[in-house]
Amino acid sequence: MALKKSYRIKKENEFQLVYASKNSVANRYFVIYQIPKLGQAHYRVGVSVGKKISKKAVDRNRIKRYITQVIYQHQDQLISEVDLIVIARKKTIELDQAGVEKNLLHCLRLAHLLS
Hints:
It is a single chain. The radius of gyration is 13 Å and the shape is globular. It starts with 11 loop residues before the first helix and ends in a 5-residue tail after the last helix. Helix 2 (about 55-75) crosses helix 3 (about 95-110). The longest helix is centred in the middle third of the chain and has 17 residues, at about 55-75. The chain contains three helices and four strands. By secondary structure, the chain is of the alpha+beta class. The protein has a four-stranded mixed β-sheet, sandwiched between helices. The protein has one domain (about 5-110): Ribosomal Protein S5, domain 2, CATH 3.30.230.10.
């Protein structure tokens, strides 16, 4: 149920390119940066969960897993010609799987990334 490698943003310079676009939306739990990539076959996602959220890698990895699972489950609704970065905010640590899904989908709707 994980995203394929071609659907992920991993390189630092690719992250910086999306950040440099300064095209972002946010809610209480997530910030989403996006940059249009015309002609791209499918979307690509980068996930960032910083140490401010939790010092424990277990907690950060759980949040990353929840985020990627939500994106995987709703990949047929996501716009294909975009690179996006999902950043978890500090309050995200309080959420369970259903809470992450609800709030991430809300943020994706705000960004007009769901069709």
